[in-house]
Amino acid sequence: MLTGKRILLILSGGIAAFKCHDLIRRLRERGASVRCVMTPAATKFVTALSLQALSEDKVYSDLFSLTDESEMGHIELSREADLLVVAPASANILARMAQGLADDLATTVLLATDKAVLVAPAMNVRMWLHPATQANVETLRARGVAFIGPNEGAMACNEYGPGRMSEPLEIVAAIEAYFMGRLPASEPPSLISGPSVIRMAPETMGGAIAHRPLVGRRAIVTSGPTREAIDPVRYISNHSSGKQGHAIAGALAALGAEVTLVTGPVSVADPAGVKIVRVDSADDMLAACRAALPADIAICAAAVADWKVRNAAHGKLKKVPGAAPPALELVPNPDILATLSASGPQRPALVVGFAAETENVVANALAKRERKGCDWIVANDVSPATGTFGGDRNTVHLVTISGVEAWPTLAKDAVAEELARRVVRHFDKGGAAAAS
Ligand code: CTP
Fold this sequence. Notes:
CATH superfamily of the largest domain: CoaB-like
Bound molecules: cytidine-5'-triphosphate
Shape: globular
Helix content: 25-40%
Number of strands: 22
Structural class: alpha/beta
Strand content: 15-25%
Strand order of the largest sheet: 8-21-20-18-17-14-9-12-13
Largest sheet: 9 strands, mixed
Distance between the termini: 45 Å
Radius of gyration: 26 Å
């Protein structure tokens, strides 16, 4: 998609500069060429040598270099680019851009360019939220500069909030969107609109709870993918690792619950203290969940295949020379979460589903909670840039009848522990049917 596109990557000073190594790799593997310009501050965080090795091009940083200026003047640098990307963009370079300063090569190129500019800010949360920075951002936006990020999360300076540079794949997606004629969203993600979302800072998570408060409670947890047979040797499945579901089962067990973990094929270790039921297909998973009833809690974290193959072959499908490949007819699988949510007198008092979404995470999760009839939805963004599938961290929203909470990015174990704590508090409050 980026074949032949020429990106001029301008790095300013910030710890996020290290992410530019990956950004350059990602751009180059998509066919773009990348030429780097560094501010003097950027050279304190990454070396010109590493950028040069990855971009396979000369790196420019000195406005007054006679050789550079004779080979490739600052006007030429921007003329030869299709898009200028400032990443990381510090508060300082945003201020200099807004002022129209040209006091180093980077800002001189930015002032001299007639090309589009995409900016990925990265700075301390207070610097980002400072009225001076916000005014500079507004000025640049009004001049047509596009922004990607910053993201919200834990920062190198031990603070939390908006200010983290967007991940390399998010920046790549914004660049691709630019070349497809769509500029990236002009609203920074820190200003989310729509249903009211309470942002949970890390220090508001956790908290003391009694020793093994879930003793006497039974829980069913589904985890991992399902496999839907095509024939005895082939199947349809997905990338779910089971890390999140297994962590939840372990966290509930650690708090004293009697847990049945119904899991598709995964390679993560069994959590301690839970009964494991291993299944392959969605039909088997549903049967195992039904067999584990009654239960007080059901948490469906499995990535159940939505479809199975009608009439899977009993013997291996053989290739017949010259014949067309077999046409697979797919039929829907049972919805385990919806079935448990509607299981009448056997319905667990608290039914929790997950929502794996790649866009409109909150809106889709709100709709999914209604549609599936569960009490809570843990919505996670599984778009490739997040690395959620198979990764160790997760950024989730907890959707309940009382509203939507945006949790900070946490290790999957920490998401599981926090969810288990919420389960405890829910039952402490009496576990009202309309779970809050
Ligand atoms: N789920 C389930 N049985 C299915 C499909 C999904 O139990 N056959 C559960 C998942 O474990 C998860 C929730 O339903 O808790 C939502 O799964 P998700 O894949 O996000 O949603 P889908 O039902 O596939 O809906 P869509 O395709 O619209 O995203």
